[in-house]
Amino acid sequence: FITGAGSGIGRATAQLFAERGWFVGLSDVNPTGLAETASMLPSGQSMTTPLDVRDRAQWARAVEAFGKAGDVLVAISTSGTSPNVVKAVRTANELGINTVGLLGGSGGLLLHECIAGVVVPSTTTAHIQESHIMIGHIWCEMIEEFLFPELFPSS
Fold it and tell me: Which residues pair with 119 in a beta bridge?
């Protein structure tokens, strides 16, 4: 699920994942923006959950509503220390959801909470975010190539 999916980078991320055929969970504190984003995605390819990112309990409820054992939660944090993302990862771990961190800095607490993590070793938020976007695109292509090898003929 994507927080801040009602506008900006959250909406763009949701659109990217939906374009690639993924089912996406959309969350935002703004119900109007959330509905607008959902209307931009293919029918049946998303679910919405209201979420105020300042409320840790809502993070746990969103993970419980969206995830199930065996799923994968990618936790993205430029610091690796966001208490709300940590709460979401811990909830996911309790539910048997696989957790992968896409992190910045030293990886923070999330590096140890996730079963796997990729750390962008920078303290500059913009550089971390730029790297996260690139890594996200690479992961999408790798997953698509694994799931649909017929679309990627050998060169």
Answer: 103
Residues 108, 6: Cα–Cα separation, whole Å: 28
What's phi and psi for 50, nearest 5 deg? -65, 140
The answer to whether 65 touches 50, Cβ cutoff 8 Å, is no
Sign of torsion, CA 117 119 124 129?
Answer: negative
CB of 59 within 8 A of CB of 28? no
- Tell me which residue of 98, 133, 134, 94 sits closest to 115, measured CA to CA: 98
Helix (H) or strand (E) holding 78: none
Q: Which pair of structure tokens corresponds to residue 62?
A: 């969103």
Closest by CA to 129, choosing from 138, 139, 120, 117, is 120
The continuous run of DSSP H or E covering 102 comes out as strand 98-104
118 is written with which tokens?
Answer: 């990729």
| 50-103 pLDDT, tens digit each | 888 888 888 888 899 888 999 999 999 999 998 989 999 999 999 999 999 999
